[in-house]
Amino acid sequence: MDITTEVRPGANRYACGEGLLQDLPSYLAGFRKISVITGEKSSNAFKKYYRKELHYPTYRYDGSSSHENAVELANKIGQAELILAIGAGRVIDTAKMTAEELNAELMVIPTLISNCAPFTPIVAVYHPNRTFKAMGFMKRAPFLTLVDSKFLLATPKDYFVAGIGDTLAKWYEIEGITRNLEEDKKSAYVRLGIASAKAIQELLLADAVPAINDLEHRKATPAFSRVTDTIIGLAGETGGFAASFGRSAGAHAIHDGLSYLESTHEQLHGMKVAYGILVQLAHTNNLDEIQKLKAFYQETGLPLKLKELNVLNTSKEALEPVINHAASTNETFNMVDPKITADQIYEAIQIVESL
């Protein structure tokens, strides 16, 4: 059995609307042993909006999104029918691993609009020191993803922008993976994944800038709701439908490599992925597409240069941890180019830096 090749669309249930959290008790009905996993900032944001007490054992993750922390939390919890994750990407991924350790269902309340972690059965696993380790594939998707669009208007702008960058990569990575795949070898689900990724790209290019403005003015407009659903829900469908043909490729490999530079540890996931899109496009010689994206990156605040990710030294020696990791055989740049080398990735970075 290879779970990574299976079609796994996403959460069992996806509920989105203004004020849905006020009905939280009804969503929790039927579960007796419930434990909450959250973080300090996530907990504070939730309490500020919800204003009611959750009378369930509550546990804090350690910030790492590591399997070690998930096992530690599972041991503390002991038994649970439901894990309620309240937070953003790393909190949610930690809760997914904890729920799997306990063979429990998972309900997710995202506190930020920043990625598809609330929706998918996939996790980004890090080492305890916060360097990237691997992608993990859970046996279960979330039982319910509860998206309160009014609550999520409190998302900091930089996280929202990062979510746009991470989600935009869905099109460029699946296109890079499948561009040389013969049509008769594209299954129905791969074709559906490609179509969903293209819809994501078109929606973001049309709605992302207005949605950022709506966020700043705390207005849950149709454009804001569409981008919210795209980042949290639709993004997960691409890899869910197309499996390995629709998941990480060059853009995420660059993100993973950048995690080995301590100066980038405070940079958001989606910002590093957005820069990775440009590197992947440079490697595949799609320079016209980079030029088309330039205005969009400038309008949204996505990074066009490494200095915007707090990487000031762009020499080959300084970037060796990045390029060596991104080009390694266990990374995903080889989904675009099976013969990718560290030298080629460095050359692509230099092209992006010079544009």
From TrEMBL:
An example molecular function term from Gene Ontology annotations: metal ion binding
Gene3D superfamilies: 3.40.50.1970, Dehydroquinate synthase-like - alpha domain
SUPFAM superfamilies documented for this protein: Dehydroquinate synthase-like
Needed co-factor(s): Zn(2+)
Binding site for glycerol: D166, H252, H269
Annotated TM spans: none
Domain Alcohol dehydrogenase iron-type/glycerol dehydrogenase GldA: 12-148
Assigned protein family: Belongs to the iron-containing alcohol dehydrogenase family.
Name this polypeptide is given: Iron-containing alcohol dehydrogenase family protein
Species: Enterococcus raffinosus
